[in-house]
Write a sequence for this structure.
């Protein structure tokens, strides 16, 4: 085997093309082995551009690669993951595994049975800024965490056709913050969600574009997440983790390291989307995946982690719909933490 | 009458001494006419230090001044305000007017009957940073507000003897953010509050030291407030107001305009309390009060405004105790907006 | 005598009006005793506005006050200072004492003979940001200073009639940085200056609007100053003092503590002139002067300090005119450091 | 030919290893074809680690590659460049081409005769922050440039054995700022340099560790550079370009996008060397070189540009040694701007 992991890439939409570029020019441990798309013309064109093979079928992609990265539409993630696992291929899969919980669980079991490495695409866990702050938090430099606050806001909403299959606001947007909450603070025992549609187009499809989610952690700390589909001013992804000894504030206010001053006004550019904000994180998540395969190490975000974030997002969705907090009970299992949820009717103390 | 308003100051504790210093050295339209304290020795000593008269009784203070500033313990605010109004003296009173709602309403009616200027001490409305941002928000530069987020965190908790008479977390701490929410965004129709005591000393007295409060505004926007009694790292008072055209972020991260860099690390000092954060605001609130008296203008924060913030704080308290959202109905009256509140049992949509 | 020093203010132009406002509303140890201006109408109008007495003559001003603040045109500073000193009045005088060196020396001797407090208006020494950084520098926290860098840039040039009597670029602008260099680092042994007129209007009167001045300090450190009359983007006054243990960076990039974000761009307002940048420093310099008088303490900037800065500015002017470095020899005297200067012809090593 | 340019890397010291990593994991248009080092063991070990061929001789490296990147000791740059050019290989060469001017000129002529692409390693021209700011400056958004200010400061000095062959302070350090001055502002007509050795070890070898260089540009603007070998607090590389319409401030104050706050203090990490400050620039300079070869385009930094920066650095060195300004005359030639220099004796106006 060569030094780099040959990754077959399935799905060549926006996210897929980001992965293709990263695999050909920003990864040290991985390389792009072949590309596949349901639309063969798309695959052929990109293959020519990048001078890599293209596969006419997903089965052919599996043959040509040591591992696959799945960036196809959400509805196909579970099936493609299971097929790859069955063929003994390691799998990197974009989130969510599925919008259906039983299917998610089955998929996780399938990769566990196959014994392949399975990593889900929560990119923030691979960004150098977040990783550096997380290292200090996990080393205990904050003391006991007492408050977690985070904002994830897109500049402009995705197109309606995407929204239709997104799984709803909490599963599509908030899930990233819920994963970060678990990563940086710990397990959650209560979720209360509030939402609104500032744009009537969202109300029309029964969805929202703005939300506030309040978390209560196992250790008693409170957490608060605010999210927006259309912040307009830019892409915001910032966080505060406050502890008994210090507070970490994670941010990236500048798109470039320069400031421009005109009469009476100093300004700097803001990142406008996740690509501008996280140029490294998407490359590093694939590189880290390849290193896990190489070293036989467990991935930083497992299928069970993805399931936990999904369950929390579903709890937020239920809380928003019922107007009541949802209680959760984290269960420690051999493969990670799994949540059981119940709606809260009783009065809190 | 002279150019400056002679203000008699009642109550010479921490806040009273801040007012005394400001009245003698930072106000252009007001001056310190006399000082009074329940402890005559305190009053006499400060009077000598500042070379102003001291009053042996509150009645004497009223005689010596055009107006009074009341910074006595909370329980006496209502009575001293009413007495001053009856004597025809304009009144600046620290918040809250009273911890009892009927007393608050009676006090407001008393000053209205007397026709004197009555201003309550919400200092942020007078800080140059907040005033400058508010001017642009009120001018419509943000467009329609869609999200309001604010943090107020004290570095260290007040002493237990203060807490006993504070009225509880929401009435003492959150009330400032609730006033700012009304000022910058508008009226509130729903409050949901979550709290926790990270320090057992708070739990022991049935209080909390950390809270998250979610607001729903009349225009459909969401708001979120986080508060802490013991942030440890410093005094935080920052805010974001997001609209359809822009977002305003109000902050004051540096205590001084310099940065100190040691090997590998750049650092700056943080303000440690409201005095360090708001050196101007406390002077300006008294100066603005004096200008209102001089010009016959209404004050920027009326008794009715203070009542509205108090009602919102009480709603937060109730929500925290019941675990349910509290609905509010803002009523426009001649003298300002008044709230009616009901606990929400029904499911939200 | 009362608690506050009654200061008579002479000269009611821009700087004089700043002092008048500060003395009536921002000083704790000083008050405005009376105002005087060569134009009696100006004095009378301001006196009515501020409800203070006005003096028909400078002699009358001296009678009505414990001390004077002189903000008249530069050409009269020396004479008015000497007259005040002779009358036993303490003197705060705007810089420069005089554009003529012998007159400057005579004036210093006159106030020394009279035994009054004499302070010259270098405001930066009284700004809280600079004072806080200077305290740490003087406490040795930087270690040995190795590099000093500072920028002073006006947003827009003064009117031509001012320039005519300004004493030239180095004496009018650079002198502030030269004083700061002495304050924060120590004495200077060599000055090399470079200048240019980016605006032909300056070239037409034999002056410049942009300059770079290089300093060599007694301890071997290098210093560099850049100055501009028309930076256009705002008023810049920032500095770096680098030592063997740390570096201090003094700045004040924001006019207000808020940021405004529009699509893709975050911006904050810049101070546009020294009034916006230094709201406290001008009040504090008079308050500090009053406290020196009260406490019998030496002022923070003496006449001898002003002479030293003037001599350095003259050295810069000579260097710019000759294209050669100018060497200086600081002499320690009882009343402070005095400079002797010689033009350098020899080659440096 | 394949899509990526196969680059043979000569010299596997610190800079060479950075290039090796970038060529294998951060370049889209280039790949590492083979490695060579005077020490064959070093080459063999790195080749095994990166799974690329190693060359036993420089001639073999040339055979195995489309182009070479030269990161060997300075004394060998010219010879290796000429040999590569003769063999028809494109050349990327670390600066300086040579410490000897005639050799530099001959090398430039050799690559011109051979008609190969020749790029010299001034990395800042390839950093995304600088490139973004430069694009706006070159588009005229600043108006006419009036002042240029820049700081380049290393955290810790290089080892003595490096210093011996470095060519001296100005040729080794300042040369980067001189290249940036030409890039962002234009040609220089006068250089005046001041230097000092704050560390006696530098004085002992006749060198300096701190310098200030003043530039006068063809358009009349002034420029000022400060440099240090041992800033201690971190690696500084920042700049201001002030024009008649705006000012650009290029900086990168944070090593990571998070801030850490402990009681009373907010801090962030600083980059400690050029690798931490410029993770992208070194990859991009090789990628851009490869794209030039692919597209037949001229490189962004030619040999003639490197010669111009070298001549300005030599002028700074002469000015420092003589204590006089050095005048330069930029000559426009077909292949770029070349400088003629003369020492200034006469008095400037």
């Amino acid at each position: 085997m060569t030094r780099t992991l040959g990754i077959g890439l399935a799905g060549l939409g926006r996210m897929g093309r980001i992965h293709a570029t990263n695999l050909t020019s920003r990864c040290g441990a991985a390389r792009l082995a072949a590309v596949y798309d349901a639309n063969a013309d798309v695959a052929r064109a990109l293959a020519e551009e990048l001078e890599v093979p293209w596969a006419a079928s997903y089965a052919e992609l599996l043959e040509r690669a040591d591992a696959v990265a799945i960036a196809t539409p959400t509805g196909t993630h579970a099936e493609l993951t299971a097929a790859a696992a069955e063929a003994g291929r390691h799998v990197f899969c974009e989130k969510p595994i599925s919008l259906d919980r039983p299917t998610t669980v089955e998929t996780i079991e399938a990769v566990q049975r196959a014994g392949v490495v399975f990593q889900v695409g929560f990119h923030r866990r691979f960004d150098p800024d977040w990783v550096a702050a997380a290292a200090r938090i996990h080393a205990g430099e904050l003391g006991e965490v007492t408050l977690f606050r985070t904002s994830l806001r897109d500049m402009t909403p995705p197109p309606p056709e995407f929204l239709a299959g997104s799984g709803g606001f909490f599963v599509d947007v908030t899930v990233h913050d819920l994963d970060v909450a678990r990563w940086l603070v710990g397990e959650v025992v209560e979720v209360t969600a509030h939402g609104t549609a500032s744009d009537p187009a969202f109300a029309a499809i029964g969805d929202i574009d703005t939300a506030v989610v309040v978390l209560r952690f196992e250790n008693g700390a409170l957490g608060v997440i605010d999210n927006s589909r259309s912040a307009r001013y830019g892409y915001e992804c910032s966080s505060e983790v406050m502890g008994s000894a210090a507070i970490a504030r994670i941010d990236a206010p500048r798109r470039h390291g320069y400031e421009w001053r005109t009469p009476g006004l100093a300004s700097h550019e803001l990142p406008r989307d996740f690509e501008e904000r996280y140029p490294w994180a998407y490359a590093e998540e694939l590189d880290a995946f390849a290193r896990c395969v190489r070293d036989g190490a467990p991935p930083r975000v497992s299928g069970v982690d993805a399931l936990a974030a999904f369950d929390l997002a579903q709890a937020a969705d239920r809380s928003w719909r019922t107007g009541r907090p949802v209680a959760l009970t984290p269960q420690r299992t051999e493969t990670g933490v799994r949540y059981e949820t119940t709606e809260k009717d009783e009065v809190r103390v």
Q: What stands out?
A: The mean pLDDT of chain C is 95. Chain C has two domains: 5-116, 125-277+305-343.
